[in-house]
Amino acid sequence: MNILDGIRVLDFTQYLAGPTVTRLMAEMGAEIIKIETTPGGDPSRLLPMIKDGRSGYFVQQNRGKQSLCLDLRRPAALDIVRALVSKVDVVVENFGPGVMDKRGLAYQDLAQINPRLVMASISAYGRESPLSHKTGYDWVAQAFAGIMHMTGAADGPPMPVGMGIADVTSGVHAFSAIGYALFHRERTGKGQWLDISMIDSMFHMNEISLQAHSITDGAYQPKRAGNNHPLVSPFGVFKGPTGYLVILALQLQWKGLCDAMERPDLEHDPRFADSNSRARNQHELTPQIEAWLAGYSDNEAVLARLEQFRVPSAPVLSPVEALDHPFSRARGTVRTVTDPVLGELNIPGFPLRFSAQPELPTLQAPLLGEHNAAVLSGLLGYSTGQLEALTAAGVIASADR
Question: What pLDDT is stored for residue 400 in this prediction?
C-alpha cells in the first residue's frame, strides 16, 4: 500500500512550482487529475528539450498524472470542474493572479461544494499580499528574496542559481503543507486553504545574513563573497589538482585539516587561531591550502586524505558527473524511467524515503487529454454520447503528444 493511496487531487498546475507538488504526491500513490486547458495544455509541453514532439521537461514533472483537457472558457467545462471538486481531497493551482477567482474557482467557491477540501495556491508574491497582482517566475523570487544578491563573485554582479530552486522549493513547501492540512482534516473534519509564496520560500533560506544584521544593529551588511564564506574559513571552493572541490572545516575540523596537511604550525598560528581569525586572514590561508592540494596527483587522492582525518569535503561535480557517480545509482538519487514516446531517460530519484513504502509505483506522463474518457466516465458517469458531444463542442480536447 502506498502512503497516499485513496487521496485524489485536482491539479491545475503548470510549468514547475505547482507540478512539483503533485509529482511528489503521485510518487506516494495519490490519484492526480491534471486539468489542462485548451488549446495546448500545460505550456511546459513546449519546453526544451523536445524529441518527437514530446518534452522531457514535461515528462519529468508530470509522471503518474491523468490528463483531462478542458476549455475553461466554456460553462460546461466549469460544470465538470465543480462536479469533480466534490470527489477530490486536494486542489492545487499556480495560475496567474486572479485566474481562479475570475472563473469562480477560488477556495471560497470550492469550499462551498466540498468543505473538507484542502486547496493550495502557489504564486510568486502570495495571494494575500500587497503585491498579489504581480506575476513572477523563479528568478524573480530569487531576486526579490535576497538570494541573487548573495550569489556570485564579491566584485561581480548578482547571479541567479542556475536551476529552478524557487519553483521547486515552493513546491516542496506546498507539498509539506498539504500533508499537515490533511492531518488536520483527519482530526477536525475541516479543509483549509494554503497560500504559498515563492518569495516566502526563498526568504526562508536566509540565516546568518539576517541574524548578523540584527545583532550588530545594522552594522553588518550581507554581501556576496564568491567562493569562500566571509565569516568562516576554510569554508569554500578550492582549486584541486584535477578540478574544483569544497573543503568545509569549522572549528571542530580545523585540527583535522592541519593534520591532513601535516602543518601543525598552521593550527597554532595566531592568524588562524579561531574561525573569526581565519576568516579575516583567509587571503593568506587559502593559497597555502591550494598549494598543498596541488601536490596531489588528482582530486580523488586529496579527498581520500581528507576523509582519513574526517574533514568534510566533496568534488564539485557537473550534473552529468553526479548522474554517473556510483553513489547516485546505489542510493537511487538518479533513476532511469521509460516514456512511451521518449523511451528511456534519466531523471532525479524520489528524495523521500519511507520504510512503509519502500517501492515506488511505475508511472508515466500523460498525453494531452489522454484520460478524458476515463475521468469523466469513471468519476462522473458520462456516457459515450456525452463525451462525443463535449468533444464536438470543443469542451474537451486531446492530442497525441
Answer: 84
Nearest to 166 by CA among 201, 127, 128: 201
In the 8-state DSSP scheme, what is residue 271? G
Residue 20's nearest CA partner among 192, 204, 201 is 201
Q: Is the peptide bond before 49 cis (omega within 30 degrees of 0)?
A: yes
Task: Write out pLDDT tens, residues 259-308.
Answer: 999 999 999 999 999 989 999 999 999 999 999 999 999 999 999 999 99
Q: Known catalytic residue: 11?
A: no
Kind and range of the H or E run holding 239: strand 235-240
Cβ neighbors of 397 (< 8 A, separation 6 or more) are 38, 39, 69, 70, 71, 368, 369, 391
Report CA 53 to chain centroid distance, whole Å.
Answer: 25
Alpha-carbon distance 385 to 175, whole Å? 38
Q: Which residues of the chain have pLDDT under 50?
A: none
Tens-place pLDDT, residues 205-224: 999 999 999 999 999 999 99
User: Among 42, 138, 167, 200, which one carries the catalytic annotation?
Assistant: 167
CB 383 within 8 A of CB 366: no
* Contact predicate 105/191, CB 8 Å: no
Q: Report the predicted TM-score, pTM, of the whole model to 2 decimal places.
A: 0.95
Judged on CB neighbours under 10 Å (0-12, 13-18, 19+), 369 is buried
